[in-house]
Amino acid sequence: MRDFLVLLGRCAGLGAVLLCVYAGAMRLAGNFYAGSFQLGTLLIASIAGLLVGCFLLLFALTLRSDSGPPGRPRD
After folding, report:
1. Is residue 72 classed as helix, strand or coil in its secondary structure?
2. Range list of H helices, the chain
3. pTM score above 0.85
4. Average pLDDT of the segment spanning 8-33
């Protein structure tokens, strides 16, 4: 489960970064729309995607593979 969450978080983050780069490049080129979407909307969606990716990675980080004491190092 941890590996799946890490993969999902990385995919969400990568997709969000690509969307942000696309929307930023289109906006710098002078466009206000990409298809039927405003570029501001795409930038906000990419920020939300980055947030989802960060939360998935954080959740994967907090999963413990053992139930030992908190000070014990994990393998």
Report:
1. coil
2. 2-28, 39-62
3. no
4. 95
